[in-house]
Every structure is written in structure tokens, then in C-alpha cells.
Write a structure and sequence with these properties.
The chain has 241 residues and is an alpha+beta fold. The chain has one domain: PPM-type phosphatase domain (Phosphatase 2c, domain 1). The protein contains 7 helices and 11 strands. Strands 2, 3, 4, 5, 6 and 9 form a 6-stranded antiparallel β-sheet that branches.
Length: 241
């Protein structure tokens, strides 16, 4: 498996409040985490970095090659729940960090399956001969779309586009979503913060994958987001089977 990644502050933000991790588990399954922090000066970067650290520690300490897929998904869910409690408690203990939170996406690619656990509007996509969104945004705009109150074009420019309905640290309890799907040799899973998807549409993302070596894709995606305005932090991870 091949893993590539890049994270960038973008052109408009004073700091990069995204955090991420990539690596391999004890059985050489690919493992990636992307978190996009929010909340006050410095709070977002604290929330995202603490969440990534807690998720990585939790999974590395508990993962076993003997686990079946359901057990791995449960482990991923519990890792997000643990990270949620850590961020939530920190936000209550320190006034400067009050209200901080972070999105989170965990990806494990194991035995021709992609296992995904997420909270918020950072995304995972499957890239092969097409692009398919794996995750569902936990956002106000997504809810309006699904209720037929917005068209996709209206959603792109909606003033509440960045308002999310679930985040780590926002509440004492959180409900992550779990997804598993089979993948084939040559397929890539893209995990990214909304600094990519708000500035590069899906067709352009697919074209960048199609027209570049996989080793260059993460950098090309970040460059394109910046060329299109770079209004947010951008984090991209690609995992290719």
C-alpha cells in the first residue's frame, strides 16, 4: 500500500488548525487520521492535535491482527468517543479553550476493505474509475439538502455552509458514523478536510487523480485549492491499495 499526504495553512488563515497522522498498524494495514479543528485563537489547533494523538494512541494500544472487521470498526468508534471526552474535558477545564472542537475521520485499509469512522464534515472518498463520497457530512447544509430545501448549487454558496452538527469536543457524548466497503488493487481512498472540498469540486479532484502519478496527487490537490482561493486550511491523505 502507498500513503501520501500534505497539509497546508492555505492563503487566508493565520495558522493551520488541521492535524493528521499516517502510518501502518501491526499487520501492515494502512492507518490514517485527519482532524480539522475549530474554536477561538489556538483552540482549534489544540483540539485537532489532541484528538489525533488520542485516536492514534487508542488504536495502536488496542489493535490486533486477530480482530474481525466488526471489532476493528468498534475500536475506531471507541477511539473517537475517547478523543471526544479528552477534548471536551479540556475545553471545560481551560477558559481559553472553551468551545473548541474538531472534525475527525479515521481510515483503516485492511484485507481489501476500507473501514471509515467519522464525525463532522471532513470527508473520505473512493477513487477508481470514478469518484465516490464515502462519508456523509454532519452539517446544517447537508441536512437541508437531504430534506429537499436546497439544491446542490445552492448548497455550495450557502451562508451556513461551514456550520457542522457533530464535532469531537462539542458535547459530552458523540455519535460517530461507521462505513465499510470493499476496494480493489489500484483503488485509492482520499481523506481530506473541507479546505479541499470547499475549493476543488469533485470532477476536478477526479481529474487530478487521473492525470498525475499518485505520489504527486496530494500536492496537486493542495496547490489547486490554493489557486482557487485557499480560504481554509487544507489537508489531504491518499491511501492506495
Amino acid at each position: 500500500m502507498l500513503i501520501f499526504s500534505k497539509s497546508d495553512r492555505g492563503l487566508k488563515r493565520d495558522e493551520n488548525q488541521d492535524s493528521f497522522y499516517t502510518g501502518f498498524l501491526s499487520d501492515n494495514s494502512a492507518f490514517a487520521v485527519v482532524c480539522d479543528g475549530m474554536g477561538g485563537v489556538g483552540g482549534g489547533s489544540v483540539a485537532s492535535s489532541v484528538a489525533v494523538e488520542e485516536i492514534v494512541k487508542y488504536i495502536n494500544n488496542s489493535y490486533s491482527r486477530k480482530m474481525n472487521r466488526n471489532s476493528v470498526l468498534s475500536l475506531m468508534k471507541n477511539a473517537l468517543i475517547s478523543a471526544n471526552m479528552k477534548v471536551y474535558e479540556m475545553s471545560k477545564e481551560t477558559s481559553e479553550l472553551s468551545g473548541m472542537g474538531t472534525t475527525a475521520v479515521i481510515l483503516i485499509v485492511r484485507n481489501s476493505f476500507a473501514l471509515v469512522c467519522h464525525v463532522g464534515d471532513s470527508r473520505a472518498y473512493l477513487i477508481n474509475d470514478k469518484i465516490t463520497q464515502i462519508t456523509r457530512d454532519h452539517s446544517v447544509v447537508q441536512d437541508l439538502l437531504e430534506n429537499g430545501k436546497l439544491t446542490p448549487d445552492e448548497a455550495k454558496a450557502h451562508p451556513r455552509k461551514n456550520v457542522i452538527t457533530r464535532a469531537l469536543g462539542a458535547e459530552k457524548e458523540v455519535v460517530p458514523d461507521l462505513t465499510e466497503l470493499p476496494i480493489e488493487v489500484g483503488d485509492t481512498v482520499l481523506v481530506c478536510s473541507d479546505g479541499l472540498t470547499n475549493f476543488v469540486d469533485e470532477d476536478d479532484i477526479a481529474n487530478i487523480f487521473e492525470n498525475n502519478d499518485i505520489s504527486a496527487v496530494a500536492g496537486k490537490l493542495v496547490d489547486t485549492a490554493n489557486q482557487n482561493g485557499g480560504g481554509d486550511n487544507i489537508t489531504v491523505v491518499t491511501v492506495t491499495l
